[in-house]
Amino acid sequence: MQGEKLSEDKIKQLFNAILSLQTKEECIAFFDDLCTIKELNSFVQRFVVARMLREGATYMDIQIETDANSTTIARVKNQLDNGHDGFSIVLDRLATYQK
Q: Among residues of the chain, what percentage have pLDDT more than 70?
């Protein structure tokens, strides 16, 4: 399947599977089975970078805390500024939960 574009149907199947998870424990189990440690660490790193950018952290502060390189930080910043608002939706909801 390498080199082939995933069909929209297969992508929707994955997202439906994710939406079916009901607890943090189920999420942990699913993503532990689905992802390598490196992949999961990349997801976590990008998420932390997004949170820190929204909080106004500098690239240097983000690099120190997350070990992300400037290219990764710039890509996340571009998604925050020009993406589909996925990071913003989740970060806004988490801020609401923490109140």
A: 95
Task: pLDDT band for 4, please (50, 70, 90 cuts).
Answer: low
Q: Where are the domains of the chain?
A: 8-97
Left (φ > 0), alpha (ψ -120 to 50) or beta: where does 35 sit?
beta
What share of the chain has pLDDT > 90, as a percent?
89
Sign of CA dihedral 35, 41, 43, 47: positive
pLDDT score for 99: 63
Please tell us whether the domain made up of 8-97 is placed in CATH 3.90.550.10: no
In this predicted structure, what is the pLDDT of residue 65?
Answer: 97
Integer Cα distance of 77 and 49 in angstroms: 8
Whether 52 contacts 61, CB under 8 Å: yes
**What is the DSSP code (8-state) at residue 69?**
-
Q: Which parts of the chain fold into alpha helices (H)?
A: 8-20, 24-34, 37-54, 59-66, 70-82, 86-97
